[in-house]
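Appendix B. Raw example, untouched.
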Amino acid sequence: MSRTTTDATTQDRVWSVTEHLADILGTVRPLEPIELQLLDAQGCVLVDDVTVPVSLPPFDNSSMDGYAVRAADVAGASEAFPAVLTVIGDVAAGRGGPLTVGPGQTARIMTGAPLPPGAEAVVPVEWTDGGLGGGAVSGMRAHSTAPEGASGQVRIHRAAQPRAYVRARGSDVRAGDRALEAGTVLRAPQIALLAAIGRGTVRVRPRPRVVVLSTGSELVQPGEPLGEGQVYDANSFALTAAAREAGALAYRVGAVDDDAETLRATIEDQLIRADLVVTTGGVSVGAYDVVKEALAHVGDEDEEGGGVDFRTLAMQPGKPQGFGSIGPDHTPLLALPGNPVSSYVSFELFARPAIRTLMGVRDIHRPSARAVLRADKALTSPDGRRQFLRGRYDADAGEVTPVGGAGSHLVAALAHADALIVVPERTVSVEPGTEVDVVVLD
């Protein structure tokens, strides 16, 4: 189905927030799975369950630097009456050897080293004289400088129960267990587990590539001097950062002047690296709203099923919106309004769920809550529009406080907000003390 603005019915219709989002999510599909090296898979979503091939730990091992002992040999040991054992050698991590601990014997053992046959427990080195014949020591001398520590005798000042300071084989996970389930987002702890069970690669849905660009001849790159009538381009920075926070690989394109051909060519050049394109600005009804001019009829002739539909939504801020697909691969495109608050709110409501859908995650929406409105006066809202006001949310108190006004240009207020206060379409006033819906942004 072509998404164009040539149909008068489409042009005149006012879409609800729910309808617009449903249309987006009904079109966007998760990206195809690929096999990636572990570090390349960071932030991606696991496609298949992962089963543990080998138990963790794979053998009984020591959780302390100390001495591997038989429990009977140290029973009743104390500082006044230490148990004196013969040291038969060292057991170091990664160097399991033929040592077997017999009656009256011990082996010096390092953290992570396999428990030698015959031994039942580990005595921390701090409970011993370290083989020096004096009082308790705080640690072992390096083997390279004192190899004699691996022989001779050691006095042990405390008893140890069987399995003391021993990490049992399979105490973390056992072979055959499910290590991670499909749908898991791979972060550092999950990657650690995959590496620990020997997985070098994993099948995931890749992080979506999102291209963000602003439009407007008045926009100037931050750090450059402002001319008359110019403002700094905040939107492309905000939305690129928001896309990365959502889990995408986001690329910011410098602001494009108000020229339809230039904008169309810029977008076409970016499609090679885009799974989603997000534009900001140029979607209203002004004479220089070039996004509509550049994209309204894309797909009419040679891109069957493509095109961008520009809509009026029953929401504030963010009334003008655009959505469709462009290019030979029908890359989805979201055209957001240009006012800073409008663009950010629109991103949170529409672009972020689209990105999360491309990733293949289960929970695509920000968390929501009910909170008591704390304000000096009633909040007003236009009849027929769902309003999203900035606020500070106190989860412990179950309260939310408005930040700034309703203006769609109030960037400073947005910077101090961590929630959106939702006022329904048919509610024109919300009194302090009323419970409201809150979208939590942090």
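End of appendix B.
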